[in-house]
Amino acid sequence: MNLKFVAVIATVLGLCSCQVNTVVTLDVGQNGAGVVTVNMIADSEVLAKAPNLADDLRFDDATTAGWVVTRPNKTVDGGLQVSLTHTFDNAEQAGALLTQLSGEFGPFKQMSLTRSGKDTDSTFKLDGSLQADGGLSAFADARLLNTIGGAPFAENLRQADLDLGKAMTIDFVAILPGVIERTTGIDTENTVTWRVPLDGSEQSVLTTSRNTAVKATVARLVANVFKFLLFAWLLFIAVIILRVAYKRRVASRTPSE
Fold first, then answer.
1. 234 and 193 in a common domain
2. What's the whole-number mean pLDDT along residues 63-80?
3. Taking all residues of the chain, what is their mean pLDDT, rounded to a whole number?
4. Are 62 and 170 members of one domain?
5. CA distances in angstroms from 191 to 32, 98, 112, 170, listed in the order given
6. What CA–CA distance (Å, rounded) separates 234 from 240?
7. Which of 121, 158, 188, 254 is most buried, by the most CB atoms less than 10 A from its CB?
8. Total domain count for the chain?
9. Looking at the structure, do residues 221 and 235 belong to the same domain, yes or no?
10. Does one domain contain both 199 and 218?
11. Same-domain pairing of 224 and 194
């Protein structure tokens, strides 16, 4: 299942002034399992000039491949939104899902996710590149391009003095466990974001994160236990001291025989 919001993209290329935004999110848990989400939004101009767009979209290949599709729905500003999600059980499956979203020409190339180390101290490595070369070919196969007439759409784009990057955007977001040690993207805590280049250039996604969250949680738990024991011991000592002081005071007040 390639990332082909084809009906919308074709409309964008024909209308030129419209905009389609896509966000692909890779959300990885501490054990390497997680979910891939694809969220695609066409603005109100697209829907205004193609009112039957929601009925024309087909995602049979996606559902057959195991993706859960949220059917097209209107956005607050009058656009159209479609979401697809697919869970994965391990890092290897995550890489395979990203590969499903890409054809021969991109935009996700040689994507892989690996996890090494122990449960209490593991390292995640995301590798691959973002590249959409071949223009429309990156989002539709040759047979489909021949059907919809890819060349005329591309010609309309050139005549309008627009490039593919101005008609649409694709962002890739990776949420990895632990602390990001290095990345080629924009790092916000454990979330890294890249903008997929649509001019044929290549963007590396090489990123590593180290997850010691479980170990840190255990350490905090042990520390809290020691704090409680220390407090209990100090309280016990204080009680003993008070009892001894009280007995001495009572003894000093008792007349000797």
1. no
2. 84
3. 75
4. yes
5. 15, 17, 17, 16
6. 10
7. 121
8. 2
9. yes
10. no
11. no
Residues 194 and 240 reside in one and the same domain: no
Q: How many Å is the Cα radius of gyration of the chain? A: 29
Range of the domain at 185: 6-211
Specify whether 195 is located in the same domain as 92. yes
Are 151 and 191 contained in the same domain?
Answer: yes
- Per residue in 206-230, pLDDT (tens digit) is 999 998 855 445 555 556 666 666 7
Query: Residue 190 falls within a domain, yes or no?
Result: yes
**Integer Cα distance of 36 and 112 in angstroms:** 13
Averaging pLDDT over each range in 8-22, 26-40, 72-86, 163-177, which range is the top one? Answer: 26-40
How would you label 87-109 residue by residue, b for 16+ Cβ within 10 Å and e otherwise?
ebebbebbbbbbbbbbbebbbbb
Residue 1 lies in a domain: no
Q: Tokens standing for 171? A: 């962002």
pLDDT for the residue 119 = 73
Name residues whose C-beta falls within 8 Å of residue 88's C-beta, 6 or more positions apart in sequence.
33, 34, 35, 36, 94, 96, 97
Structure confidence at residue 85 as a pLDDT band (50, 70, 90): very high
Q: What six digits make up the tokens of 255?
A: 């007349």
For the residues 70-82, what does the mean pLDDT come to?
A: 82
User: In the beta sheet, which residues pair with residue 73?
Assistant: 81
* Residue 26: pLDDT over 90: yes
Whole-angstrom distance, CA of residue 11 vs CA of residue 45: 10
- Decide if 21 is inside a domain: yes
Q: Is residue 76 very low, low, confident or very high in pLDDT (cuts 50, 70, 90)?
A: confident
Is there a domain that residue 173 lies in?
Answer: yes
How is residue 86 written in tokens?
């697919």
